[in-house]
Amino acid sequence: AIAEMSSYQIEAGWEIKPQIAVWTTFTPDHLSRHKTLENYYNIKAHLLEQAEQKILNGDDPQLRQTLAQRWPEAHWTSIGGRDWLRQASKNRRLADPDPDPEPAQDIYREDDWVIFQGQHLVQASSLAMQGLHNQQNLLMAVAAARLAGIEPEAIATAIRSFPGVPHRLEHLGQWQGIRFVNDSKATNYDAAEVGLASVEAPVVLLAGGEAKEGEDSPWLDQIRTQASGVVLFGAAAPVFAARLQSVGYDRVECVETLDQAVPAAVAIAHRTQAKTILLSPACASFDQYPNFEVRGDHFREICLAHFQSN
């Protein structure tokens, strides 16, 4: 069985011992429940501690900083290539007499190839999903598949034919030269920042919902760089509008619902010649929806109805 486990589920299944565990990233989230970042981190780390084999994202600065020497046997991944992993190997094998160790247990991207244990498995560009974070996800998925005994040919075929995942930079279609992208899964600032960086600019951003705690400055910087306009909806709209104004960004429109947000975004896109309309809320959905999936489904329905009626 394959399971994606939230911190809530890890707490509830404290005795679970995975054969393979993957730690993709660590950013502040769910602090209303866990109270401190340390508690949240320790819950995640517990699952990895229990695992027989561990896969860690070497491109995540928090994981690099805190785990470089904790699990010497772990498999690290990096889109930065072999040289970065070589240095990481030195850092986490300080007692190794070899001054130039090979990252044999690691997986990396180099010259567009995914390389694991010296073997060129598949071209990274064959993955349809956008964004550097999805390249990181690709490496971790390939590492898990190989450790689980899946043959390289089967892995390569699956990657080439994989269309993507709903609500995670999901391409809904193109209308009058504007791409519509559903990133409803971006429920915090870090995920929304990555979403903005992953699509073609200029972007009209749809954001809002139930705001979470966290550091929003990198997200705000990305908006200033990428967005020709922002449409805010839901409970967080006035707070987000004030934050954007505080950093000198005033191309903002506030509405109550997604039904109002989409036509507003289309109008802004035409006015500013934007390439992309992106739902990447940076918020939980609970002010108006039971979960992010229902929110994303609603956005998809609105967009498809707009395509058909125009």
In short:
By secondary structure, this protein is α/β, with parallel strands linked by helices. It has helices at 7-12, 31-34, 37-50, 61-67, 82-92, 132-147, 152-161, 189-198, 217-226, 237-246, 258-272, 292-309; strands at residues 20-23, 53-57, 75-78, 107-110, 113-116, 119-123, 170-175, 178-182, 203-208, 227-233, 252-254, 276-279.
Question: Which terms would index this structure?
Answer:
single chain, 310 residues, alpha/beta, UDP-N-acetylmuramoyl-L-alanine:D-glutamate ligase, Protein-Tyrosine Phosphatase, Chain A, 2 domains, 6-stranded mixed sheet, 12 helices, 42% helix
Q: Sum up the overall morphology in one term.
A: globular
Uncertain parts: none
Stated plainly, the CATH topology of the largest domain is called UDP-N-acetylmuramoyl-L-alanine:D-glutamate ligase
Task: Give the neighbour order of strands across the main sheet.
Answer: 1-2-3-4-5-6
The rounded Rg comes to 21 Å
Distance between the termini: 44 Å
- Provide the CATH superfamily of the largest domain: Mur-like, catalytic domain
Count of individual helical segments: 12
Mind summarizing the main beta sheet? 6 strands, mixed
Mean pLDDT: 92
DSSP strand tally: 12
Q: What series of H and E elements makes up the topology?
A: HEHHEHEHEEEHHEEHEHEHEHEH
CATH class of the largest domain: Alpha Beta
CATH architecture of the largest domain: 3-Layer(aba) Sandwich
- State which percent range the strand residues make up: 15-25%
Assign the structural class, choosing from mainly alpha, mainly beta, alpha/beta, alpha+beta, or little secondary structure: alpha/beta
Portion in helices: 40-55%
- Count up the domains: 2
